[in-house]
Each structure stands twice: as structure tokens, then as C-alpha cells.
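Researcher: Here's my situation. A collaborator sent me these components and asked whether they could plausibly form a single complex. I don't have experimental data yet, so a predicted model of the whole assembly would be a useful starting point for our discussion.
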Amino acid sequence: MTALHLNELSNQTWKLFLTTHVMVIEQIERDLAAANLPPLSWYGVLWTLEKAPDHEMRLHELAEQVLLSRSNITRLIDRLEEAELLCRKRCPRDRRGAYAVLTEAGLAMRQQMWAIYSQGIARYFAKQLNAEEMNTLNQAFQQILAAVKETPVAALGE
Amino acid sequence: MTALHLNELSNQTWKLFLTTHVMVIEQIERDLAAANLPPLSWYGVLWTLEKAPDHEMRLHELAEQVLLSRSNITRLIDRLEEAELLCRKRCPRDRRGAYAVLTEAGLAMRQQMWAIYSQGIARYFAKQLNAEEMNTLNQAFQQILAAVKETPVAALGE
DNA sequence: TCAAAGTAGTTGCATTTGCAACGAAAAGGA
DNA sequence: TCCTTTTCGTTGCAAATGCAACTACTTTGA
């Protein structure tokens, strides 16, 4: 019966996890929109590129890092290129391939977005937790992530 | 300098939060799809209705509980009604209003989905955490949620 | 009582997503 | 070498989402 209670706690915590995620993300999106800034999905791309050597990265690599499908990254890059925050560059080594290269405007935009975004993270997330709780969450997420990554592509029914 | 470290930890934890969310959700969606079951979004509606008195609920109430916009709930209900998992019922007291009412098939489907879904929650989430960690997460999410809910609709720049 | 304001649910439209298929190019293997 | 398989990025198409407008109805309050 301890098991039952633990299970109920787990399910409740899972639901809180989902709820917290939507609520916080929606709030941050509202904050960004109110500042006339692009949505959160753009930030991931800009930041990943900024960290990459020469501010450039192959599209499939980018897709992998920001957890988007290939087709999805193609169109997201389309929009960012349209907004001149990055540009495409052909790959000399692999004639199928392309790089996304961050522009100056892209770099500046990343910083503008971070001003708002970091405020949101601080206000809605970080300030609500003490150091010990933060450490526990960090560790917990790493454990969960490891478990999901170990899951084989088709591992049902067992 | 402790402040710096704490901040870095916070940002890393935030990123882990985002990554964990997509990875686990995508995995559970794959599990559901592999069992020929509907997506996770359907589950929330079915479960909320099942808990409600007489297995019925006003649409705007439902929207609020499953965290969807009104227009969004309309179309989601459309799909569920199309699949005969629920049906609409006019509200006698308020002639603008409508109820969503769970059907037998809807009840059965909720249970089928739960068989897979609960397995996912257990495997990818609950089993990765001990009781203490689970308690900390539960508490942490409640704190965060409270903070977001307290945030006024337009509260930028301060 | 009656006009103004608010609320419930739906709809149109533009944007975004997900899936499968495609052409082009590279990699692997007999 | 030559044929098969894999990978890269894109595209078409259907489905889902978000926003604003709309109809119908209720509530408010002068």
C-alpha cells in the first residue's frame, strides 16, 4: 500500500510536470510577443549557432541539437533566413549538404531575446527553487533523459 | 561567485527541463501510435470527462482544465465526437452552451490508452526517481505553478 | 425595461507541424 | 567498377494550432 501511495504521488507529479511546462512556456511566449520578439523556437536555433565554431552548422546537426525533424528544421531555417537572422551556405565537402550561418542581426536578436527569456527563467523557474531543490531537479532530469535515450526505437509490450 | 554558479545551474536545469519534456512526450506518443491509439491530447479530455459528474462537462470548463484555447477545444471535441468517444449535448440552462458527454467507447478508449500511457510514465519517469526526489519534484512544480499563476496578464519590464 | 457589455462556442484564415516521398549525392560491398 | 543502400535537405499534402471575428445568448446596470 506504500506502493499505491507512491504511484499516486508519481502520477500527480507527472501531471504537474505537464501543467508546469505549458504554463511557463506560454507565459514566456507571451513575454516575448509583448516585446515584439520572435517565438522561443527561434531562440534555440540562434543560440546553438552562436555556440558553434564560426557560428555555422550543418542543418542535420542543428536539427538534432534543437530536437526537430529534418523537414521541420528546413522550414524553420526558411523563416529565420527570411528574417535575415542567418543565411544558408553550400557545403564544399558534401554537395548534398548546407550550412546555416548566423548573421550579425541574428547575433543581436539572440541577445535581445535572451534579455526577456532569461528574465522569465529567473522569475518563473529559478527563483522558485532553492539550491538543493535545483540540484535535485537537475539530477532527476538527467536520470530521466538517460532512461529515454536508452529506450530502443521499438520497445513495446515489455 | 556562488551566484554565478547557481545561475549556470539554473539555466542548465531549465534546458534539461525542456529537453526532458520533448523527449519523454515524443517517446510516449510513439508508444501510443505503435499501439494504434490516439495522441496524448485526446487522453486529457477523456480523463477529465471521466472524472466529472455524470461524465459530462461544459466545453469552456473542459478547455480550462486541459489548458486549451476555446477554438482549440472546439476542434478537438469535433475529432473526438467524430470518433464517437463523446457526444455534444445542448445545455438547457444556457442556450449558448454545450456539454461534452463521454460515451462507453470513450470510457473504454481512456482505459486502453492508460494501459500504454501509465507504462510510459512508470518507465521513463517514475522509475528513474526515488521517493525523496519525487517529493522534491512535486513540491518544486507546485511552487513554480503558483508563481506563474500569480503573474498578472501584462507584467513586463519589472 | 432596455441598451451596453460580457460570455459560450464556432468559424475563417494564416501559420505551423508531421509524415511520406522525392532527387541528388555519398558510402558500402561484391 | 557498378549496383545497392544510406544520408542530406527539400517538398507536397494533410492535420493541427493560434488569432481574430462572428453569432447567439446572458448579464449588468441605468
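Model: Some features of this prediction you could bring to your collaborator: Residues 41, 69, 71-72, 75-76, 79, 94-97 of chain A lie near DNA strand C (CB under 10 Å from a C1'). Chain A touches chain B through 53 residues (CB under 8 Å).
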